[in-house]
Amino acid sequence: MNVDITGKQFELTEPIKAYVFQNLETLQKYGLDIISSRVVISADEKQGRKGFKVDLTLNLAKRGTVVISGKDKDLYAAIDDIANRASKVLRRESDKIKTHKNKDERKEQILDQANAPLEKIDADEIVPMELNSYKPLEIDEALNILKADENGQFLVFNDMDAKMRVIYKRKDGKFGLF
């Protein structure tokens, strides 16, 4: 990340720069690929009150630019306020990426999981399988195949009219047909 710290009407010291760097490093934990950040600290004196104004600009890869401004009497409090607000914004952006992924990215993930070795697939994931229906079956034949398979709950097959059918075991011990 490229960091630029500027002081307007105010002399920046090394401890202030180090404090700003320290706060900006905490923003890296969201993994949003911050390209550059610019911090402008200016002394602000209006109506006899002294204070500091801090402007933070973050350029994010593929996400745009985030601009946050804040004022406070204490310089370190102003920097903390800006860092906290930037942290909230970046957390929201990170959550959007995690929960609202593009459909193309989801398709890529599904394809990657389908091609992954079986050891890596969790129990809750759906594993695509090919349907082995080489010849059409009579309904009685499909029923006998399902009865013969002790662990089978259903059987998908093509009937004699080339219509795809599903025969399944019901909870009451009978069989159903779609």
Automatic annotation (TrEMBL):
InterPro entries: HPF/YfiA_ribosome-assoc, RHF-like, RHF/RaiA, Ribosom_S30AE_C, Ribosom_S30AE_C_sf. Keywords: Translation regulation. The keyword Protein transport does not apply. It holds the Pfam family Ribosom_S30AE_C. GO terms for cellular component: cytosolic small ribosomal subunit. It comes from the Bacteria. GO terms for biological process: negative regulation of translational elongation. Residues 123-177 form the Sigma 54 modulation/S30EA ribosomal protein C-terminal domain. GO terms for molecular function: ribosomal small subunit binding. PANTHER family: 30S RIBOSOMAL PROTEIN. Associates exclusively with 100S ribosomes, which are dimers of 70S ribosomes. This is Ribosome hibernation promoting factor.
